[in-house]
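User: Before I run my own analysis I want an independent prediction to cross-check against. Here's the chain; please return only the structure tokens and, at the end, one sentence I can use as a sanity check.
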Amino acid sequence: MAIGSGRGWVNSAMVALAAGAITVSGCGGRGGVPAEPVEPYAGVALSVLVLGAPELAEALDDRRGEWERRRGGSVSITSADSASEADPGARSGYDVLVFPGDLLGEMVAEGLRTLPEALVSPPPPSSGGQEGEDDPTADAPPEDGLAFDQIVEPYRQAVSRYGGDRVALPIAGSALVLAYRASAFQTDRLGAEAEAAGVALEAPETWEHLDALARFLHGRDWDGDGEPEAGIALALGADEAERLGAETFLARAAALGLHRDNYSFLFDPDSMAPRLSSPPFEEAMEALVALRDAGPEGMAGFDAEAARAAFRAGEAALLIDRADHAGSWLEPGDEAEVGVARLPGSPRMFEPLRGAYDAADPPNRPGYLPDGGGWLVGVSADSAEPAAAEDFARYLIEPDTAARLRIDPRVPGVPVRSPLIGQGSAQGAELPGLSRRDWSDAVAKTFLADRVVVGLRIPGASDYLADLDRAVASASAGEATPADALKAAAEAWEQRTDQFGRQWQTWHYRRSLNALTTSPTPPPRGPGGREP
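Assistant: Structure tokens:
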């Protein structure tokens, strides 16, 4: 799990989001520098593999023509289903790979080209005058057509890096947010009761506040239709397709378990021992599972789609979901108001070396990016045309391409460029009740948090997450206590780590954090350091 942090860039990014100060360029050219050669890749044929998202492959296929016209090469795009994702042999022979971020560790292990910084850095400013002459444009920032600094920092500096090396470029991001029915927060209906109960009817700052809100709203007629509704809709059951329950659990655990002085909270970074049985994880699981009593009937078995359906039908006041699913939060024509907020934080944070909590004021509120951060594009290490492949990868994240992909419903995820985030949810554009400002603000604050946690992306990350998804479902169904469910998941993680090779997997985990030292190359793979 990689962690990025930053403070100095927050103000300028927020100004851009609020004022729309950055203009999205559609030309792809480089101002102030000589024109690029015509068709520099004439005769070059690139092959692109999109892993596990056929609709994304179709969207990218619709965009390849502009690159072919500008650069002279040809591009063929293939998609692989989920079965092919698990087969490294099916991923060989391609120049460019498009994949979810939780596959990054596997992609690195199989061979991804380290991308040169020149690919994303603007060219140096040029002067038309003679040496020594004053240049009135000398202080002007160079233009490069990519505007890489528009991409929010976690995606520039964490999601696209592995061990500090830039090995991919971000196409789309991922963020968990809290959606809520605005009618539930109207104080003229429930204000007196809420005040008496000590519950503030507003977007919660802490998870404890969210718990209190869900329980207070549950069983009350918060929308005025004469019928009682539920407090919250959560994915707590088995969810092989999305594993939203596991990601929600990790987001809650991060608020408790990611200390300001630590970079790692899922594993011990020296031994790969899971920390799932430690206090912050057990507390987070207990609290999450306890919310089943504040949800619609059967919520203990809800997957992501069932939770969305309950919220969409007006059966629940609150919903935790991926921001890119905003279009499914209301029925077409439903003009009910839906607000959006970043996920809550915790007034305490656990320090694992001392085994104790420290106070957090303001609340510890890391941004959590599920799915390994979102969708990435990288270049295969064995590509026969690395320069053209790098150029095509760069083209896929250029401002004009990103703007077109933002409004394409086939593209999973949210934009990662500040100006595009500020435009609100494209998928929710047809829902008059969805607050565009709230959505943009929630996503931006998730990305601009002081600490950002990128979902697990070591080799086998999806299998580790599946173990955790089963733990959430087991505890929610009452088949195991939260502690026992987490213990079972930790044992499964230990077995997976041993199968990969503990030293090899430790190297990848430390590498994925972008913050801890590692050797340039991994130790041998396999149990005991032996090749399997």
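Sanity check: Confidence is low (pLDDT under 50) at residues 1-34, 127-142.
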